[in-house]
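Cast an eye over this sequence plus tokens and explain the fold to me:
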Amino acid sequence: MTKLTDTQAIILSAASQRDGHIALPLPDSLRGGAAAKVVGAMLAKGFLEEVEADMRNGEPIWRKTGDGHGVTLIATDAGLAAIGIETDRAETTPAEDAAHKPRAPREGTKQATLIAMLRAPDGANIAEIMAATGWQSHTVRGAMSGALKKKLGLEVTSEKVEDRGRVYKLPAA
């Protein structure tokens, strides 16, 4: 069994009893920098995972992402196994856990608009995406590389098109 601090064991034990294994709220005695340090260590060890919070259903928020969304913390199968709770996939790594539950964008969001534009046969350039979303160019590029490529695992391609500049595309769904 993995060696845990008392605080880590308390967090994982509480998460194991909550719907969705949500690790929040943290113990009252854990605040500020201490909370960040404990959570950071647990994320690094794969005991906790950051996932997008469903703010509409009142899920607690660990941190805000800057684009109006929040992130919550959930106990992974590895975290639950560390406190002796067996799950169906107790031997998986955190990366495998993430692979088993692909994220799907919510409908009606700017991210969904971006994906629809990139899946169109002609794709979209930065200026077109900026006009549709109201984002600045650096936000568009960040959303494509961060949210689409890294978080959703989508393959964004680009090519230079005469009269349109660089055009970005996603393969059709």
